[in-house]
Amino acid sequence: MTYEQLVVLHAIVTEGTFRGAADRLNKSQSAVSHMLKKLETEIDIVLLSREEYRPKLTAAGEVFYRQATRVMQQMQELGSTAKNLSAKQEAQVFLAVTATYPLKPLLEIVGALTAEYPATHIRLSGESMGGPLERLLRQEADIIIATMDGVPVEQVEAIPFAEVIILPVAHPDFEPAQSSHMKTVSEMQSYTQVVVADSSSGAFAQSRDLLPGGLRWTVSDFAAKKEILIAKMGWGGMPTHMIEKELERGELVALNVEDYPPRQSHLFQIRKRDRDVGIVAQSIWQQLKSLRS
């Protein structure tokens, strides 16, 4: 039994299909099937039932998989410990954070570590959509805070970090906000949706909550987006922590749009397994774990 076999099993279970697991792991479907079959042969247990379109854990497979996930987590922690034991103070640490997360808690961490490790330049960058992932995979960022969309799970260590609610809103005088009935997609297509640009270069581009076929205005950040919404020039999704006061004052109100309910965005702190970890990056990683909500 190998760690790679457990990664394959985990990918099949989480993706729901052998094809999905193969795509995630950048392997052929036959290679994924072979590795799982080899694991089942070695332990003499049928882990997945293939009777239906989607493979399903057998009763024994459920028990094995629960233990396997614990072993994988322990392996990640052991790797982190090994890296930490051999760590040295770095010249620079780069932390890339999705723009939907508030920076204030991170600034407190960065401020304290800057004082403790003055020789290390700590970079903190707010990124949108695929930006954090691009920074990580191109070896630019040491740690990112982002969703798991498009993240190659076999290459990273990822820990649940926070949840952010994205709420579709507009000014109360904006026409779709003047009644509470659910607006259809076709109704909303004639109103401008304001979206924040993806900060990636394109290879890792992501898109979320885009109204198909509608008018669209792209801006650089959420601050600009909020100003446009308050100016009654469009509608769009905003992280609730950024608009608490505007909602309280009635400058913005929630919209009832078909297929656009409030969305819960799950964020993770993520780093690559094969990247050298210095003492400052490890300190940031550990302190981020203490912020988990």
UniProtKB/TrEMBL annotation:
The keyword Transcription applies. InterPro entries: LysR_HTH_N, LysR_subst-bd, WH-like_DNA-bd_sf, WH_DNA-bd_sf. The keyword Magnesium does not apply. Residues 1-58 form the HTH lysR-type domain. Keywords: DNA-binding, Transcription, Transcription regulation. It comes from the Bacteria. Belongs to the LysR transcriptional regulatory family. This is LysR family transcriptional regulator. It comes from Sneathiella marina.
